[in-house]
Amino acid sequence: MYQYDHILYHPNTICRTCQSPKPARSKHCSICQECIPTLDHHCIWINACVSQSNLIYFDSLLLVNFVSLFYVSVRSGLLIKSLNQNFVTFLKYSSSDKTALISNFKTVRKNLLTLFLLAFCFLLVMTWFVYTQINLIMDGMSSNESDKWFAIHSLIYDHFIYKIDNKYYVITEDSKNDGTFNKFNSINFYDGKTYSFNQSMENYLVESPEQIVNIYDKGSFIDNLKERWCL
Ligand SMILES: [Zn+2]
Ligand SMILES: [Zn+2]
């Protein structure tokens, strides 16, 4: 069980959809219709939720697919190249029926080209998947958390996030626009209350994402990978 970071996850939160308590790092999956602890995402390819309970298998699947598709793309590409180069010479010295040979050559080349194009297109997709997961491991976050952090970082860049008494708040649009800077919502969107503070707010503005720590990031790729695979 993870501790609540009070930024993305807050204690005593009840899921609005399935009404069960939400553990830190969990998310409700609308396809599986339940809150999944440490959910990364619901994968449409395996039609199941990907979370810490199966991430090691999911990563293995990505890697095996990536290596296989890379191998097939290179092998079929090289075969097409050598077939094109050698066929003319082969044809010149062959005593067999040349029309039949050319027809067979075209069929084989067409099939190989189809194989190459399919493998190469899927390789591009798989490369993107592997790249995304490597970035997530480096950042120590799940796909679900990455979306949440993106939203929070956007709010920071737009000067909406304030840290007051060790808690994070989002200034309301009205209060920001009218220059009063005295109406805030908790960063916990389940809270629903409006807060106001007496002091001047200038010193409490969070100016860059580096000022907010992701407590689930263990600090290195290897340590995050161990955490991700529960090793
Ligand atoms: Zn739920
Ligand atoms: Zn699911």
TrEMBL record:
Residues annotated as domain Palmitoyltransferase DHHC: 11-148
Membrane topology (UniProt): Multi-pass membrane protein
Reaction equations catalysed: L-cysteinyl-[protein] + hexadecanoyl-CoA = S-hexadecanoyl-L-cysteinyl-[protein] + CoA
GO cellular component, one term: Golgi apparatus
EC number per UniProt: 2.3.1.225
Keyword line: Acyltransferase, Endoplasmic reticulum, Lipoprotein, Membrane, Palmitate, Transferase, Transmembrane, Transmembrane helix
UniProt-listed Pfam families: DHHC
Coiled coil: none
Regions crossing the membrane: 55-74, 112-131
Major localisation: endoplasmic reticulum
Record's subcellular location: Endoplasmic reticulum membrane
Molecular-function annotations in GO: protein-cysteine S-palmitoyltransferase activity
Keyword Lipoprotein appears in the UniProt entry: yes
Family membership: Belongs to the DHHC palmitoyltransferase family. SWF1 subfamily.
Free-text note on domains in this protein's UniProt record: The DHHC domain is required for palmitoyltransferase activity.
Protein name: Palmitoyltransferase
Annotated source species: Hanseniaspora guilliermondii
